[in-house]
Design brief:
It is built from 6 helices and 13 strands. With 271 residues, the protein is α+β, with helices and mostly antiparallel strands. The chain binds biotin.
Length: 271
């Protein structure tokens, strides 16, 4: 009999950060795949040192722990991409949204059309790793989905850039338990495929929001550049941008080279 997909799962009313909970479990020896879900976080983390907040019960906050001995270190980014794709599938299904209406903003933010039809950030993904390339690689993939924030309840600093599934589905309340169950069943199938060496390149590529658009990118040193985004590179996980100075006419930017991505004519949200 195949082992169950989840080796351990726990639900918390309040934790500091579900990523820290799962990181601790992996350090203690808990096998993959382990899952921590919280109603509220007191020290939720976003990418690039940002914080991640949501009122209690208004978001699906979870982290998954993997021991990716079965995945080349250079492809561990595919775990976060796979989590994003599974959540995009599940969110469309549970909120009754059209297929492919949820997009990905490179590298892994989920976007959904808000009430004004402009895509805004629905969810963010934070991947953290230890020991990649060694005998005991560990990866924690955390995702926070704005499931049930009522439209208009975002604090002013987030109101222009964020949306929720509830807003995207015209104010219908979202059943977080159903969203979680649907996500886990989509994820199980996708992780099984990944273990078998099949990453959903087509799905990951077709959901990309930036492809074909002008983007402004902030580098780690504070420098800023404007590019035309052409697509994504399924080998490295990088963003492919037009570059007339290179022989190929394009170049690949990697996650460590970019702190923030803005759609030049759209909402500004951090990656
Ligand atoms: C981002 O967009 O900057 C990434 C946000 C990731 C937030 C999730 S919520 C669950 C998990 N625990 C954390 O502390 N962060 C991630």
């Amino acid at each position: 009999m195949a082992p169950p997909f989840l080796s351990r799962q726990e639900r918390f009313a309040v934790v500091d950060s579900t990523n820290d909970v799962v990181r601790g479990w992996l350090a203690e020896g808990t096998p993959e795949v382990c899952l921590a879900v919280a109603d509220e976080q007191t020290a939720g983390r976003g990418r690039d040192g940002r914080s991640w907040t949501a009122p209690a019960g208004a978001a699906l906050l979870l982290s998954l722990g993997f021991r990716p001995t079965w995945l080349a270190a250079e492809w561990v980014w595919r775990l976060a991409a796979t989590v994003s794709l599974a959540m995009a599938d599940a969110a469309e299904e549970v909120a009754g949204l059209p297929e492919l209406s949820i997009t990905l903003k490179w590298p892994n933010d989920l976007y959904a059309p808000a009430a004004d039809a402009v895509p805004r950030k629905l969810a963010g993904v934070l991947g953290e790793t230890d020991g990649l390339g060694g005998p005991d690689p560990r990866a924690v993939i955390g995702i926070g989905v704005n499931s049930d924030w009522p439209p208009g309840a975002f604090p002013p600093e987030l109101a222009g850039t964020m949306t929720s599934l509830r807003e995207a589905s015209q104010g219908r309340p979202v059943d977080r338990a159903r969203l979680l169950d649907t996500f886990l069943s989509r994820l199980e199938a996708r992780i099984e495929a990944l273990r078998d060496g099949r990453f959903d390149v087509a799905g990951w590529t077709e959901r990309q929001l930036t492809s074909g658009h002008e983007v402004e990118l902030d580098g780690p040193d504070g420098g800023r550049g404007a590019y035309r985004a052409l697509g994504v590179d399924a080998h490295s996980g990088g963003l492919v941008v037009e570059d007339p100075t290179s022989a190929a006419g394009e170049r690949i930017l990697h996650v460590g080279e970019v702190r923030r991505v803005r759609l030049a004519h759209g909402a500004q949200v951090g990656v």
